[in-house]
Write a structure and sequence with these properties.
Layout (H helix, E strand, L loop, with lengths): L1 E11 L2 E12 L2 E6 L6 H9 L6 E7 L12 E4 L11 H9 L5 H8 L17 H14 L4 E5 L7 H14 L4 E5 L3 H7 L2 E4 L1
Parallel strand pairs: 3-7, 3-8, 5-6, 6-7
Antiparallel strand pairs: 1-2, 1-4
Length: about 200
């Protein structure tokens, strides 16, 4: 899959967030989006997912199969908020998006790579911020998708945990298109990513 963005524009009232923005991405690569707060990183991701409408420009998704029946890309995302069902356990939160693709035992095994075993059966409301973040990341990675968008996914993670999570992301996203916004330059190298600046 390929993404081509040309002359993308978006403003909120008098605040121009994106102005004639260009972007090219393809499957099998990780891209890191960097820029100061308010530069348009979150807005760009929302535009790509169709959650916002652009004021101008084009966003073109191309599959290898260009038949008229070629489906639109499937997105998975980590937003700045974790967006978990607080009364559900990490296992239940992930199984909401995996359905029958993975068994409960498989989901539990994947989560145990990022979270302490004892936390997997507790309601998300009782977890620390870092545990909730890792649950949200695992949920996005195990969902069916073509394009993964992650908006500052490493917020609240210490250095050791961040490196573990990044290794897991690299393993699970092979062959997919991935766009991650971050404020840490070292994340670009750890992810083996191509840098995009706003």
């Amino acid at each position: 899959m390929k993404l081509t963005v040309r002359n993308l524009r978006k403003a909120f009232g008098d605040l121009r967030v994106l102005d004639d923005f260009h972007l090219d991405m393809e499957s099998g690569r990780i891209y890191c989006l960097m820029g100061p707060s308010g530069a348009g990183k979150t807005t760009l991701m929302r535009l790509l997912m169709g959650l916002e409408n652009a004021d101008g420009g084009t966003i073109l998704w191309e599959r290898a199969d260009q038949s008229p029946a070629a489906p639109a890309p499937r997105f998975s995302a980590v937003f700045q908020e974790d967006r978990l069902c607080e009364a559900y356990t990490p296992v239940e939160n992930v199984m909401m998006v995996t359905g029958r693709l993975l068994s409960e035992a498989q989901v539990r095994a994947e989560l145990a790579r990022l979270l302490p075993e004892e936390s997997l059966s507790r309601p998300a409301a009782t977890l620390s911020g870092g545990m909730k973040r890792r649950t949200a990341i695992c949920r996005a990675l195990l969902a069916p998708y073509d394009v993964l968008l992650m908006d500052e996914p490493f917020t609240g993670l210490d250095d050791g945990t961040r490196q573990t999570v990044i290794a897991y992301i690299r393993e699970k996203t092979a062959g997919r298109m991935v766009l991650i916004s971050t404020h840490q330059e070292e994340d670009v190298a750890l992810l083996g990513a191509e840098l995009i600046t706003l």
